[in-house]
Amino acid sequence: MGIAISVSEYLNHHHIPFRVVSHPYSESALQSAIGAGIPQQQVAKAVMLQDHQGRHLMAVIPADRRLRLKRLGELLDRDLSLMSEVEASQTFPDCQFGALPALGQAYHVPVVFDEVLQDQQQIFFEAGDHQLLVQLSQRDFGRVMAEDRHGRFSVQPTLDYGQRRL
Fold first, then answer.
1. Where does the YbaK/aminoacyl-tRNA synthetase-associated domain lie (predicted)?
2. CATH number at residue 127
3. SS (H, E, C) the chain
4. Under a CB-based contact definition with an 8 Å cutoff, are residues 45 and 102 in contact?
């Protein structure tokens, strides 16, 4: 399929230089990172959310982390829930099912990103299919996200994540 038209048009229109990196077919941003031989923390994944009024929001976090939904809701003062993949895919008509680019701006979706992504020199994200990643420098990723909210709302998963200690 190649890079989604909305993604390439958005980046070109805003004069954001990018590279496309291929990898073996994968079903997740984490698998894409592994297949492409890229550090997992450099691959940004999109998590589609909605609030109780049905307003959509894209949270962008590193592929090796998990979204802390409650924490993000507190930061934004909104009750948020995960969107189903079917519902989320309707917002991305030029993307393959399940391959959402972490570039909500290209689809007029509000974005909030985790600040831990600012620690990476390069950022990669799904290009809209299951075999390509878009590569941006940290500087250009910052330009893309300059108008978007940010905070710390993801966590490194552990074996006992979410379990209480006695």
1. 32-141
2. 3.90.960.10
3. CCCCHHHHHHHHHCCCCCEEEECCCCCCHHHHHHHHCCCHHHEEEEEEEEECCCCEEEEEEECCCEECHHHHHHHHCCCEEECCHHHHHCCCCCCCCCCCCCCHHHHCCCEEEEHHHHHCCEEEEECCCCCEEEEEEHHHHHHHCCCCEEECCEECCCCCCCCCCC
4. yes
Query: By residue range, what is the domain housing residue 86?
Result: 5-155
72/166: higher pLDDT: 72
- Residue 67's nearest CA partner among 95, 123, 29 is 29
Tell me whether residue 115 is in a domain.
yes
Q: Among all chains, which residue has been given the structure tokens 């109780």?
A: 52
Please give the C-alpha separations between residue 165 and each of 155, 161, 162, in angstroms, as whole numbers.
Answer: 18, 10, 10
Q: What percent of the chain shows pLDDT beyond 70?
A: 95
Domain-embedded: residue 161: no
pTM across the whole model: 0.92
